[in-house]
């Protein structure tokens, strides 16, 4: 196995683990595109799923005293409700058009949030169900589930420690389910050489350790800016990917 085939995925996992530990989301947005430079997308997705489950288990344990069960369960319920229509939408509309649509929506939302625009929330339960629904919908159709939740929780004004912990548990539960489904469907067979996983594990641990230290130094304002930047970068990447698929 070539050295680049080991080093670039490990670097991708390190960066993804770092930012996912700091913000609670963004692992797939960072890891999959970088790993896809040297390995196939199918292998990158399965490797990323395995590592992110390990990452979530560790960070779920670290945040077990901070997250809110009611927020997590309500949002996960909304996400489950959005997965079926999201999967159906993927069958009737091209993935490229879905990526372009979501990218445009996220760019507008990021701009408004950057301008401190605030949408009044009359019912947090309805808001969390709705945010979860769109997260599940776009997760099932485009594999990008984090940004809709980030936009909502930032608008709700959730304190950074609580928001990160809730995001970690929401995606932790979701990704464990996804891993089980992929195992049952035989998608693990996409990985023919499991040695590619080995360098990713210490890279993940290093990303978690540095991410935890960096998070401790973040104030609320900087956390908000970092979250919006990651959403914006992800939106731009989706737009570029969608346009390339059409052209």
What does this structure look like?
The chain is mostly helical and 247 residues long. It has one domain (3-246). It contains 10 helices and no strands. The protein has helices spanning 3-23, 27-35, 41-62, 69-92, 95-114, 124-142, 146-156, 160-184, 200-216, 220-246. α2 (27-35) runs antiparallel to α3 (41-62), α4 packs across α6 (124-142) and α7 (146-156) runs antiparallel to α10 (220-246). It is globular. The model has no long low-confidence stretch (mean pLDDT 85).
| Order of helical and strand elements | HHHHHHHHHH
Overall mean pLDDT: 85
- Structural class of the helices, strands and pairings? mainly alpha
- Enumerate the spans where pLDDT stays under 50 for 5 or more consecutive residues: none
The total number of structural domains is 1
Q: In percent terms, what proportion of residues is strand?
A: under 5%
> What is the number of beta strands?
0
| Count of alpha/pi helices | 10
Helical content, roughly? Answer: over 70%
Give the C-alpha Rg: 17 Å
The rough form would be described as globular
Query: How would you classify the quaternary structure?
Result: single chain
Distance between the termini: 34 Å
How can the largest sheet be summarized? none
